[in-house]
Amino acid sequence: MGAFIGNLGGLIMIILIAVLLFKFITELCALKKSNDSIVKKVSFFTVTAVLIGFVYIVIGGYIYNFKNGAVSLFDIQTIWNMKPVSAFMTVASGGTYSSDWLLSDGIFPLYPVLVSLFSGLLYDMYIECAFYISFLSWIVTVTCLGLWLDKKYGYERAKLYIMLIMCIPGVFLLFLPSPFALFMALFSAFLLCFEYRFRVAMTVLAFLCIFTHMSGIVALAVLVTVYIYGWDKKYSDIVYASVILASQLVLCVVYYASGIGCGVECWFLMIIPAIMALKYFDKNEISGKTFYNVANIVLVLISSFYLTAKIYQII
């Protein structure tokens, strides 16, 4: 009975927070752009995130069951026992944050503290609460990235690019329990505020990123560049793409040298500078969507092999 009430409470928590975030994002965008279509855009990106996340969970569960026997499709700890999920699960068994986590797995305090806070309201269902927060973070990530792309390239291209992003190998780790999932939500909101020139919100989100994950250094580097370099210069996208790329490359070296992190944490942020530089190279109109459809098919095939290999612990 306690488990049922806890799961029901977690579902209600996700719904309530999702409604509040929906309202916040639409109001945020409306401050600079009064457009009734913003609700339609937010709805599209939010629903897409939920559906794609659910598809990944179901497919991952069936892949695991095919080899290892029947377990619940939502047995996150058993099916998705891979980095960075496994690292968080291992050190999170006590349900409280320890400074040793930073040294051993690079886990910063904000995510564990949030999980501990909400799990206390859900009959100490720590793993389930971690999943709820991460899945909500996934919805925020997709929605904010979609709106960021819409502001830069228009709605039609934003839909093409966001589908491309969601087919990238390892993207499923963005809705599984780990601090990186929360970091990507905060960093995506940071990028959206960057595009709408909300400097105060950017500053707050940058520091939240730092308290969530080591990759928060990237947000801090962008924030410092904003205060020094400014906005709306001729090659500003190239400048900011270079800042993100350089800081992430430094982090990749740190990850490799320290033995923490995983592939997704190293390569996923590389997508952002690639997208920021797109407008200098991608001059095709929407008729060029055939290229993106083919790219999606290729990425889906690669992602399928990657997902299977991760669940079977081959890589």
Notable traits:
315 residues; mainly alpha; 15 helices; 0% strand
Task: Give a structural overview.
- The protein has helices at residues 2-32, 37-68, 76-79, 85-91, 100-105, 110-119, 126-153, 155-165, 179-195, 199-210, 216-229, 236-258, 263-267, 271-276, 289-311.
- It has one domain.
- The protein is globular and about 55 Å long.
- The model has no long low-confidence stretch (mean pLDDT 78).
- It is mainly alpha-helical and 315 residues long.
- 73% of the residues lie in helices and 0% in strands.
- The N and C termini lie far apart (39 Å).
Shape: globular
Number of strands: 0
Uncertain regions: pLDDT < 50 for 5+ in a row?
none
Q: Into which percent range does the helicity of residues fall? A: over 70%
What average pLDDT do the residues reach?
78
Number of domains: 1
Contiguous helical run count: 15
Relative strand content: under 5%
Rg calculated over all Cα atoms: 19 Å
Order of helices and strands: HHHHHHHHHHHHHHH
End-to-end distance: 39 Å
Question: Pairing-aware structural class of the strands and helices?
Answer: mainly alpha
Largest sheet: none
